[in-house]
Amino acid sequence: IRSFTVLAFESSADDTAVAIVNSERQILSNVVRKQHALHEGYGGIHPKIAIEAHQRNMPLAVQQALQEARTSVNDIDGIAFTRGPGIGGCLSVGSNAAKSLAAALGKPLVGVHHMQAHALTPLLTCSTEEAPVFPFLTLLVSGGHTLLLVATSRSEFKILGTTLDESIGRTFDKISRLLELKWSNRGPGAALEEFALQTTQQDLESVPALPRPMPKRLAFSFSALHSAVERFVYNQGGIGNIAMSTRRGLAMGFQNSAIAQLEEKLGLGMDWCARENLNIRHVVVSGGVASNQLLRTRLSTFLNNWGDHPICLVYPPVALCTDNAAMIAWAAMYRFLDNDFDDYTIDLRPEWSL
Ligand code: KG4
Ligand code: ZN
Questions:
Q1: What is the per-residue pLDDT across 47-69, written as a single tens digit (0 to 9) for each?
Q2: Which residues line ligand 1 (CB under 6 A)?
Q3: Are strands 282-286 and 156-162 parallel, antiparallel or unpaired?
Q4: Cα dihedral angle (40, 42, 47, 51), rounded to 10 degrees?
């Protein structure tokens, strides 16, 4: 059969992304224009600024994606876009581009669920031997998501747990800022990881035990951990009064607590799957926080010691762990190949459960 080539748009949050992927799993181009610098001062994504940046960036991103793939728009067989969930105004920039382009070219259109696309990414990036087999668990840990999902097929997913307050990535960012760490060029979370590398047992013992919220519940929470660190710093009269060794202890103590929570919820997720008679052999961990080396080591040890059969931990490459349009193209590919298309008039789903 002939190869099928998809051009995909993603603009659900603060990244403007366009990618071209074919049915042979080749990523011909993967353009991501980040907006971090525009939102830094707001402590989160400012919707109006994000929409305006998508509007400026999207035409350039499409142009670049076609150039890098050395593809003419006439060689594109289908157009995909993120239908939801996300910020309505942001989603509309990618979806309007996709719908108009598909209609103008007379090509089929598919709207994709952003979380399903994250969960299916390893089926694009892993070799056949390493690719996860259904059913598998997915842990999405980024600035935007803290989610535990079970994927039972390419189109059936269930959310087992999400965060009740802050995301894990934003908590890393805020603790990093509180400790006044210099951002390495990889950002605040990576700076915290690097800072904590030199921590000794004595440093760890110089800080109080940090809370592990909501044991036994399939939901995440990071605000109690965040405020415990804040309270400690406040009670010492500010970060300036805290010795470097104690700051390192705080950074490491925070990471230990946050990762322990991921381990616990992953365990509860495995228990849930066992009760549903789902035989889990793979766990996919994705999102910006999944680049944390301590997290990877701890989760893989945790899974190696789980139950009576080994469970493999799978990571997409970091560039495809974070928001991108290649994952949108791949999630749509299955539907294009099944001739299962959407109308050019399809609506958005800013709130869209799985
Ligand atoms: O997926 P992502 O790039 O973007 C969105 O959330 O949209 O995730 C970014 C998050 C930030 O909070 C960042 O600080 C965190 O991932 N992060 C890390 C590390 N690298 C990035 N957190 C902990 N350790 C790291 N090495
Ligand atoms: Zn995402």
A1: 899 999 999 999 999 999 999 99
A2: 13, 142-144, 169-170, 172-173, 186-190, 193, 287-289, 291-292, 322-323
A3: unpaired
A4: -40
- For residue 135, is the peptide bond before it cis, meaning its omega torsion is within 30 degrees of 0? yes
Report all structural domains of the chain as residue ranges with CATH numbers, in order of start. 5-126+319-337 (3.30.420.40), 136-315 (3.30.420.40)
Distance CA 211, CA 217 (A): 15
What residues sit around ligand 2, an ion, with C-beta below 5 angstroms? Answer: 323
Decide if pLDDT at 34 tops 90.
no
Backbone region of residue 188 per phi and psi (left: phi > 0; alpha: psi in -120 to 50; beta: other values): alpha
The alpha carbon of 119 and the centre of ligand 2 are apart by a number of angstroms equal to 10
CA 272 to centroid of ligand 2, rounded, Å: 24
| Residue whose CA is at the smallest distance from ligand 1 atom 2 | 288
Q: What spacing in Å lies between the alpha carbon of 167 and ligand 2's midpoint?
A: 12
Q: Determine the Cα–Cα distance for residues 13 and 184; give it in Å rounded to an integer.
A: 23
Number of H helices and E strands in the chain, helices first, is: 12, 10
| Residue of the CA atom closest to atom 6 of ligand 1 | 143
Instruction: List C-alpha distances in Å: 306 to 67, 132, 342.
Output: 47, 17, 42
Enter the DSSP assignment of 23. T
Q: Give me Rg for the CA atoms of the chain.
A: 21
Ligand nearest to the backbone CA of 184: 1
Rounded distance between C-alpha atoms, residue 228 and residue 111, angstroms = 42
Q: Which ligand is nearest to the CA of 32?
A: 1
User: Bridge-partner residues for 84, per DSSP?
Assistant: 113
Distance 143 CA to ligand 1 centre (A): 6
DSSP 240: G
Q: Please, what is the average pLDDT of the chain?
A: 94
Q: Name the pTM for this structure.
A: 0.92
Q: For residue 296, how far is its CA from the centre of ligand 2 (angstroms)?
A: 19
Confidence of residue 41 (pLDDT cuts 50, 70, 90): low
Ligand 1 atom 14: residue of nearest CA: 189
| pLDDT class of 182 with cuts at 50, 70, 90 | confident
